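Appendix B, example 12.
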Amino acid sequence: MLRKRFADNTSDDSVATRLRRQRFQILVTMLDDFSGPVQILDVGGRPQYWASMTAELRIEKPLHVTLLNLTRYPVSQPGFTSVVGDGRSMRQFTDRQFDIVFSNSTIEHVGTADDQARMADEVRRVGKAYYVQTPNRYFPIEPHFLFPFFQFLPIAVRAWLVSHFELGWYKRIRDTEKARQEVSSIRLLTRNDVEQLFPDATIYEERYAGVVKSFVAHCGLSARAGRA
């Protein structure tokens, strides 16, 4: 019930969907800096996300979206390309090859603090502008397991919970070592972390019930040009 009402991006009435629409307006504004088709690289993205957002917000400017993931996703919509790659090392792309690099709830999954810094550097390198969203570590409900303050529990306790119960988006992982690997693979960020990773960005705080739920680090073409 909590997942459906609070965190289900496929539900039009969920909190997550309403907040997603609001923060996507940042990207809509960024599109004004470019003539179409706007070349977008989505690190960790899915075609369903774009189909939903562009339809709901009636984006008329033509886009070409390249989806970068560790595995290839089938795409049927025109204007989409799916490629295999790693956000921490995007050497297949040249400097500022894309108008906008976009990433939604991905950077917290790429590994250690060093891995996250590598991804941030690559995002800033290959994009003329960028938009990177990530959950707030200090939001009381952990966004993946939907368990209060889950992120602050010892790893052993988190692994035990995941190996004994279905939590949030995760089915029960009966193998304790796999459960431990899964909970250890998510490293949520604070505002200070985001500011250090993206020093030229403006940080948007997405709030729910007065508490910061996530951050969006965004930097448009004009801002980056002024700091070049």
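The mean pLDDT is 90. The chain is about 35% helix and 20% strand.
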